Prior knowledge:
Helix content: 25-40%
Strand content: 15-25%
Shape: globular
Distance between the termini: 68 Å
Number of helices: 16
Largest sheet: 6 strands, parallel
Structural class: alpha/beta
Radius of gyration: 26 Å
Amino acid sequence: MVVGDALLDRDVAGAVSRVCPDAPVPVLDERSATDRPGGAGLAALLAAAQDSEVALVTALADDAGGGRLAELLAAAGVEVYPLHLPGATAEKIRLRAGGQTLLRLDRGGDPQPPGEPSAATLAVLARARAILVSDYGRGLVRQPTLRAALAEASAPVVWDPHPRGPAAVAGARLTTPNLAELRQLTGDAGGGSALSTATRAGHELRRRWRVGAVAVTLGADGAVLCHSGSTPLVVPPPATVDRVEDTCGAGDRFAATAALALGGGALVSEAVGEAIAAASAYVAAGGAAGLHRQEDRRPVLAAARTAEELVARVRADGGTVVATGGCFDILHAGHVATLQAARRLGDCLVVCLNSDHSVRGLKGPERPVNPEADRARLLAALDCVDAVAVFDEPTPHQVLARLRPDVWVKGGDYAGENGPDLPETELVQRWGGRVVTVPYLAGRSTTGTISAARQRGLHLVKGAV
């Protein structure tokens, strides 16, 4: 489990060949732009990259930035348990040229207190194998209910602190400040060498917060582990990185690796050794810039932008967002009955529509009969449908993680009385949503319609012969 403030990071890379004529500043000609999860989102991404099952508890706003974050995390295999975040998603935009950052632009404004965690969030925290608190100072880990759950957790807790954040919960196994953060947290003026400052202030923080140990990261010099003994453990990096282009995320890599190691039963000293090795390798590989290996899915998701705007507007007015999904290959009376019933459950209805690629994977090479553009147009023409979001995956999990509807609806043929839960139930419950079924018109189905049409065609051919 990773718990903390997620940010949306964007790296804008380009070339500088001239100076602005109206101000003495360089002009960046943009060549590429890459979005990635930042803050606790990056920590979760790094943990997932180590072939671990990872879930993230964070706060997400109902805006395009929050939707993009949810999309990126879902694509990386991270399960997201979101708390509602008033206001806007925090964004950090870095303008880069020649491997160097020229300027960072921050968006999102002042932090706002998040909403309450759902019952599913508290349940997953209780059964976690290891917990990393990745505090980025925007208030998530001050949330009282969430903080109480962290204090009661049986799993080892690693706390990566922020100078603007609260103290770690008492009994945390390890906290991982860097030297600058440690000085701010303790008020230590930093007299003497880095080693002496790390030792002195590290022991002070350990006593003040009542945590098991403090690992102070020193960049290229490794880490100093302050534990119950008076003599600190100095853990050097395995090798020196000749040229460092991007250290962003090195602390997250360190903390995530330490948490995974402790969750696997390692001693604190062993966990810190593994964490230093992993952070060094991460920086040597190019840092966060080396993570962008995923296919850009923007064209597939373009149709969902209208749905996201609708959802944000309805939520801003305090309304209830309802969603349903399916192939809707040949629109029939059963579909219309389900859609009309679903629309009556809230203030808007978003239909999550399987793309042509998705339908072929589910139904076979002869489907769909109608292409996605036609299917989307027919659905959007219905008075009970407010928006259509096309998705390319076999299941609607990614589009649901982006839209986070209050109610997810399926026709009654999917789950009868005392039947199994729908496959989307666990996902929707993470943000406090509800999953329901509505009555379904018996005897209406796309497969049946196609079969009947083929039989009629066969009879007509025989009659003609």
